[in-house]
Amino acid sequence: MKKSKRLAKTSSEIPAQEVAESWTWWPWVAVLAALLVVLEIYSPALHGPFVLDDRTLPFMAPDMEGKPLSGWISFVRPLLIFTFWLNYQSGGIDPFGYHLVNVFLHFVTSVVVAFIAARLLTWANVEGRKRQVLAVLAGALFLLFVTWAWLQTA
Questions:
Q1: For residue 50, what is the DSSP state?
Q2: What is the pLDDT at residue 124?
Q3: What letter does residue 56 receive in the DSSP assignment?
Q4: Cα separation of 143 and 154, whole Å?
Q5: SS3 102
Q6: C-alpha neighbours within 13 Å on the C-beta side of residue 10
Q7: What Cα–Cα distance (Å) separates residue 118 from each residue in 14, 29, 59, 79, 132?
Q8: CA quadruple 102, 105, 110, 116: dihedral, nearest 10
Q9: For 8-14, what is the mean pLDDT?
Q10: Rounded to 5 degrees, what angle do the CA atoms 91, 59, 90 make?
Q11: What are phi and psi of 121, to 5 degrees?
């Protein structure tokens, strides 16, 4: 009996705050679209060779072959070197994997920027759809600006 009463609740009886906090689909579509855009923008570089200082990084050193993870992590920036180790284990010195991980990390950072912007906007008392739009815009600007800046230096 209780169950049928809950199901009979109309949208006018649902509190406004509950409706406002409901899941929206469009930010996820924006994230997927941004991922496709960034992969399209970076696609020429994904298959490109190592350039500039890439040849001085640990994975290019001949003495790194066969070294355990502990031999790699002794360098500066252990998280970066850990990703190099993972790439080296999966594909050797083929640049595609390294470039793909780099693009993916750039994309994830853009999503984090959007979440940070959403939190800051919440603290500034910006709520609802306006907050979501501005947060997605902040993440997109970071994604595209950093991409644009990279293309200017290439």
A1: P
A2: 92
A3: G
A4: 17
A5: helix
A6: 1
A7: 25, 17, 38, 27, 7
A8: -150
A9: 52
A10: 20
A11: -65, -35
Measured CA to CA, the distance from residue 33 to residue 141 in angstroms comes to: 14
CA distance 19 to 97: 43
Task: Give one DSSP letter per residue of 128-152, joined into a string.
Answer: HHHHHHHHHHHHHHHHHHHHHHHHH
Q: Comparing C-alpha atoms, which of 18, 88, 9, 94 is closest to residue 49?
A: 94
- Computed on alpha carbons and rounded to an integer, the radius of gyration of the chain in Å comes to 22
Model pLDDT for residues 51-85, shown as the tens digit of each residue: 887 777 878 877 777 777 877 876 678 888 888 88
| Tokens linked to 145 | 């600006």
Chain centre to alpha carbon of residue 108? 1
User: Amino acid identity, residue 120?
Assistant: L
Cα–Cα distance measured from residue 127 to residue 118, given in angstroms and rounded to the nearest whole number = 9
Which region holds residue 125: left if phi is over 0, alpha if psi is between -120 and 50, else beta?
left
Residue at 154: amino acid letter: A
Q: What is the pTM of this model?
A: 0.68
Q: Token digits for 26?
A: 């469009």
